[in-house]
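Deviation from plan, reported transparently: KG4 complex.
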Amino acid sequence: MIVLGIETSCDETGLAVYDSDKQTLLADALYSQIELHAHYGGVVPELASRDHIKKLRPLTEQVLRDARLKLRDINAVAYTSTPGLFGALMVGASYAKALAYILDIPSIGVHHLEGHLMAAFLGNQVRQVAYPFVALLISGGHTQLVAVKAFGQYETLGESMDDAAGEAFDKTAKLLGLPYPGGPNLAKLATRGRAAKFFFTRPMCDRPGLDFSFSGLKTAVMNAWQSSEQTEQDKADIAYAFEDAVVDTVITKCQRAMVQTNFQQLVIAGGVSANQHLRLALNRMSEKHDWDVIFPPLKYCTDNGVMIAIAGSHRLHAGKADISNHILVEARRKLDA
Ligand code: KG4
Ligand code: ZN
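Because the crystal trials were delayed, the predicted structure below was used instead.
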């Protein structure tokens, strides 16, 4: 089956065409709204919705052209139905439902985090993903450890009580005066930082459990920055110490989750999984304990249409697709709800 995937939950319009029988990606296209929102220092929901409307049609035409297919060759349309910005989700869902209606094919609502998870199943993995596994979903909206027993069977083991890790990166970057998008810019600055000068406490690591809390870190960063000489080197050193605290915390919790479940595979997904410091630390952990740690290809760590096409294909084949004709989008919904 040929599945068209549509991602519009936030500030990226992602389209992809996926052949679910051959498990092959035929084409994908991504338009990032970074420039549109940079001026405001963060995503403006109304502008995001309007821009998705502008980009959906040309990007659909582009992926069909690249895949050498016609619209009528599409057998199903998968779209992100939750969680995300309500208006942005509505744009993608309405477009998907309209396409499905005129082509008389199913449309499949996909949970954005299930999409991120499915990106790890994309080809060229050294080791193949196999159930059961622990998933670390680490993005701008979520930080969660999930026991994935089979496709669609999720049990949340722990999650952030306040800010998501990506959100902490973004807010801390803003505090240090770095441009939007904060996370990647802070990570870039951290590569010039030195280890010795600043240290931030690893939140919630001194007590048992798998929950996270990242909101206190930004206050610690603000205090450190204000009491420093505020040189460029101080800024880089603080960025390094912040990233180190996040990475260390995440590693501690991942280790605990692996021991608790006794699973052998850890799958990392979501925007922050693009962070090189985190990837290195997780690889070190995997070697030490002989666990498999699997990342999606770098390109598909952040939001994209491919992950939605793959998750939609899995849902369709597993008979778990919601193919009702209602436009169902929800700004918030837990993966294991
Ligand atoms: O998954 P994603 O594209 O969107 C959400 O579903 O939230 O993740 C975006 C988040 C942002 O908070 C961004 O700052 C963060 O991922 N991010 C990073 C890096 N690349 C993206 N954070 C740290 N280091 C990176 N290299
Ligand atoms: Zn995402």
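The pocket of zinc ion (ligand 2) is lined by residues 112, 116, 139, 270-271, 303 (CB under 6 Å). We consider this an acceptable substitute for the interim report.
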